[in-house]
Amino acid sequence: MKKSKVEFSSHTANLALLRKCVRDFLNGYPFSEKERMFMVLGVDEACTNVIRYAYRLRDDQLISLRMEGLRKCVRMRLRDYGEKVFLQEMKGRSHDLVQPGGLGLHLIRYAFDQVDYIHKRRGTELVLTKNLE
């Protein structure tokens, strides 16, 4: 089982390094280039949402990403310690509405086979699973 963990502050300048870590972790798995790209973008979007909503744009808060290569899937566990945002409050916009923003949740759900939000006493753990086929 392949594992990796990266911790970083909630500054948006850290997102490029995060994308590289996810890309490097996914090397060697039988995903297409398109699947890899969407997974990297999905994790990036999830981190952006943490920064924007859980941390209210504070750039000095902890975000942790654990990546696990399991027998039948790859799993990304994104952990924050900010404000909880509940599923019913998360509203992606309609695909055909032409305006910026609101498509991140659609992207995350498209990139991964399973998306689970686990509310902790402090913060949230987002578990993103992509099955190996």
Describe the fold and architecture.
By secondary structure, the protein is an alpha+beta fold. The protein has one domain: Histidine kinase-like ATPase, C-terminal domain (Heat Shock Protein 90). It is 32% helix and 29% strand. It has 3 helices and 5 strands, in the order E-H-H-E-E-H-E-E. It has helices at 15-26, 33-54, 104-111, and strands at residues 2-9, 62-69, 73-80, 114-119, 124-131. Strands 1-2-3-5-4 form a 5-stranded antiparallel β-sheet, covered by helices on one side. Strand 4 and strand 5 form a beta hairpin. Helix 1 runs antiparallel to helix 2 (33-54) and helix 2 crosses helix 3 (104-111). The longest helix is centred in the N-terminal third of the chain and has 22 residues, at 33-54. The mean pLDDT is 90.
